[in-house]
């Protein structure tokens, strides 16, 4: 995950199989969200709530495998609130 000026802020490892594990603080919720989206990060249900129009871009990426299938995803959101609305627990760390 990165914020303003393309600075690295943080990253975390998440394992969902055979059971949620790793240093992700919400591993169980993140794995449940990924399972519901069938591993497609564009289909995450996120957390529906209003956000301000403040522009403070946040870029997130995920690489790994979902049920043995390689996965790579990268997206920039207008701000951290927009990220939470779109991705929920997956990037809440």
From TrEMBL:
Chief subcellular location: secreted
Any one cellular-component term (Gene Ontology): extracellular region
Subcellular location, record wording: Secreted
Keyword Secreted: yes
Signal peptide positions on this chain: none
Gene3D superfamilies: Subtilisin inhibitor-like
Any Pfam family hit: SSI
Domain of life: Bacteria
Keyword NAD (UniProt): no
Protein keywords: Disulfide bond, Protease inhibitor, Secreted, Serine protease inhibitor
A GO MF term: serine-type endopeptidase inhibitor activity
Assembly with partners or alone: Homodimer.
Protein family (similarity comment): Belongs to the protease inhibitor I16 (SSI) family.
Protein name: Subtilisin inhibitor domain-containing protein
């Amino acid at each position: 995950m990165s914020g303003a000026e393309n600075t690295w802020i943080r990253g975390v490892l998440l394992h969902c199989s055979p059971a949620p594990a790793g240093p992700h603080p919400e591993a169980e919720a993140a794995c449940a969200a990924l399972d519901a989206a069938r591993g497609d990060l564009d289909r995450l249900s996120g957390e529906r709530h209003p956000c301000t129009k403040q522009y403070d871009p946040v870029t997130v990426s995920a690489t790994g495998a979902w049920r043995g299938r390689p996965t790579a995803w990268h997206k920039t959101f207008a701000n951290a609130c927009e990220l939470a609305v779109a991705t929920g627990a997956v990037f809440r760390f």
